[in-house]
């Protein structure tokens, strides 16, 4: 399978998810910007995938990233989606342009909604929807010291001879 085949529109994704669920597979959903993929992202996504049978990643579009993080993204949405789709444990990537993935979560109706342990369960967007549908909302431990912001800061310090 080509990595591009894992990048689906919401309309394409919904019947795929329905098929997985009809086959008894647990669908895990998470989301983020994933601007510069690093060890923290890989570890987080791998842990999320191990909570179920399939992992769907909601990816912020360039426009939504720009609203959330001024001056970003560093990589365009097509590049970010292809990199995510190349990960063996990611089954589908779907772009969303809203500030939050709530509408996407309502449509996908995952069995398990996951975020990093820097979130409180009650603060995870979509938690009410997933719980009302009989699903689970979970957090996974993050690898300390890894973030895109931190990488960008180190690059900038390095270019100024500060590292």
TrEMBL record:
Gene Ontology MF term list: ATP binding; nucleotidyltransferase activity; phosphotransferase activity, alcohol group as acceptor
Superkingdom of source: Bacteria
Q: Which residues form the Cytidyltransferase-like domain?
A: 29-153
As its record notes, the protein acts as a catalyst of: D-glycero-beta-D-manno-heptose 1-phosphate + ATP + H(+) = ADP-D-glycero-beta-D-manno-heptose + diphosphate
**Which EC numbers characterise this protein's activity in its record?**
2.7.7.70
- Quick one: which gene encodes this? rfaE2
Instruction: Choose any GO biological process term that the UniProt entry carries and state it.
Output: carbohydrate metabolic process
- UniProt cross-references to Pfam families, sorted A to Z: CTP_transf_like
Alphabetized UniProt keyword annotations:
ATP-binding, Carbohydrate metabolism, Nucleotide-binding, Nucleotidyltransferase, Transferase
Signal peptide residues are none
Lineage of producing organism: Bacteria, Pseudomonadati, Bacteroidota, Cytophagia, Cytophagales
Write down what this protein is called.
Answer: D-glycero-beta-D-manno-heptose 1-phosphate adenylyltransferase
Q: Which InterPro entries match?
A: Archaeal_FAD_synthase, Cyt_trans-like, RfaE_dom_II, Rossmann-like_a/b/a_fold
């Amino acid at each position: 399978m080509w990595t591009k085949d894992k990048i689906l529109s919401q309309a394409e994704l919904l019947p795929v998810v329905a098929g997985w669920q009809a086959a008894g597979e647990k669908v895990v959903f998470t989301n983020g910007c994933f601007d510069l993929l690093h060890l923290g992202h890989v570890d987080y996504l791998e842990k999320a995938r191990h909570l179920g049978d399939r992992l769907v990643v909601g990816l912020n579009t360039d426009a939504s990233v720009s609203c959330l993080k001024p001056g970003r993204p560093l990589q365009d949405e097509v590049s970010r989606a292809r990199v995510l789709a190349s990960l063996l444990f990611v089954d589908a990537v779907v772009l969303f342009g809203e500030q939050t993935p709530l509408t996407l979560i309502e449509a996908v109706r995952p069995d398990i909604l996951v975020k990093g342990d820097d979130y409180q369960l009650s603060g995870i967007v979509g938690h009410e929807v997933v719980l009302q549908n009989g699903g689970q909302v979970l957090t996974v431990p993050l690898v300390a010291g890894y973030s895109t912001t931190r990488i960008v800061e180190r690059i900038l310090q390095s270019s100024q001879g500060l590292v």
